[in-house]
Amino acid sequence: MAQNNDNTKKNEENKIIRVQIKNKPEPPATPSLPSAALYSEEDVRKIVNEFITSWIKGDLIIRFPTASELGKQNPLSITFTKDPSVNAELKIKEHYIDLILICAGVKPANREEQQKAISEVFKMMLMFRSANRIENKNITKDTEKRFTEIEKTQQNQTKLVEQITAFLFKPKKTKQQKTKS
Q1: Can you give the residue ranges of every domain in the chain?
Q2: 117 Cβ partners below 8 Å, 6+ apart?
């Protein structure tokens, strides 16, 4: 009987179960509608890139909400000995710096986290701009450079127009003038 049990176990171990997995048919593709967004993902990325670069260079000043401004919104600030609005001010700045580090690639993050950081910086830009918290500091340097380049281009174009006009409207010599010469 013991031998019969061993044979049964061997037969059970040798049994092969075959399973065939069928792929689910994909649902029919729905025609995608063109995006109605004003800015593409790439446009937002460029805007955020320029904003961060300007801020790092010092061309932009961002006036973050101060502890006193945050305290005005918090009626409990009177009862606490340590003002929680100071912590809120620091947290806003730390959050912004963390987002900048992710966008710059300094802080490790996957692509999804980077895209989320770019979107959040864009939202913060809009909030700061709408609250008049962004100030252009040294925009004149760039503007002066552009004006200088435009003036040079205009001068060159004016010279070319004068040369072309002089060539086109130069009086032609007649046959009598040619024979006298």
Answers
A1: 41-139
A2: 99, 102, 103, 109
Return d(Cα 76, Cα 80) in angstroms, integer.
7
Per-10-residue mean pLDDT of the chain, 181 residues long, equals 57 66 65 74 91 88 79 56 68 90 92 93 91 75 75 90 85 65 56
CA dist list (Å): 24 to 17, 21, 27? 22, 9, 9
What is the phi/psi pair of residue 103, to 5°?
A: -60, -40
Which tokens go with 52?
């961060």
> How many angstroms separate the CA atoms of 3 and 52, rounded?
79
pTM over 0.70: no
Q: Of 108, 117, 86, whose CA–CA distance to 125 is shortest?
A: 117
CA 126, 132, 133, 134 dihedral sign is positive
Q: What is the pLDDT of residue 11?
A: 57
